[in-house]
Amino acid sequence: MTNIIMKTFFTKTAMLKFVVLAAFSSLALISYADEAADIQKLQTRWAEIKYQTPKAEQEKAFVTLVAEAEQLRAANTSAPYLIWEAIIRSTYAGAKGGLGALDQVKQSKKLLEQAIKMDAAAMNGSAYTSLGSLYYQVPGWPVGFGDDKKAKEMLLKGLSYNPDGIDSNYFYGDYLLEQKQYQQAVVAFEKALNAAPRPGRESADAGRKGEIEAAMAKAKKHL
Predict the structure, then answer these.
(1) Model-level pTM?
(2) Which of 13, 16, 168, 169 has the largest CB neighbor count within 10 A?
(3) Is the peptide bond before 142 cis (omega within 30 degrees of 0)?
(4) Residue 20 domain-assigned (yes or no)
């Protein structure tokens, strides 16, 4: 009788564990689905503003998108939210221009550093690529934190995670162009142009390819 009771107890315990595990698995799937939808929404809107909105209207549009990205990141602590808020803030800084943009890029830097500590491999190492792009585009001391040596280090780390990506190769090529390493820049740009299309990011890919072609033409003038 005791054996039967014990067997029943362990069977019910196992079933309970299974139910709890199934519940957590379902929650995890819902969470991942919500994250994917959130990030897709931010990516799509970012591309619309950056590549399809008139320059005169971009700053105002990015203000709204920054607020949305910040709200999502505050409610969700995963690395992709940090990365995309940083990307949106830094692009907003470019649209804003001037010394007033420095606060945005500084916030972007902090967000990217947090994302790397949390999950360096998130989004194929995008945090490294984005951080590297800030280091070579932002002015150096005493105005900003720009640093060409750190830029190269971060960009190469980004490439180690995503060696064939359009963005990782474009930003490395753009860095090389800034360093007047024109032949190497062209190689990086050509690799960026040959990157596989990103499903759901057709607008971003088209806009980026336009930037790559313009930068490659500039590099080729020096060859």
Answers:
(1) 0.86
(2) 168
(3) yes
(4) no
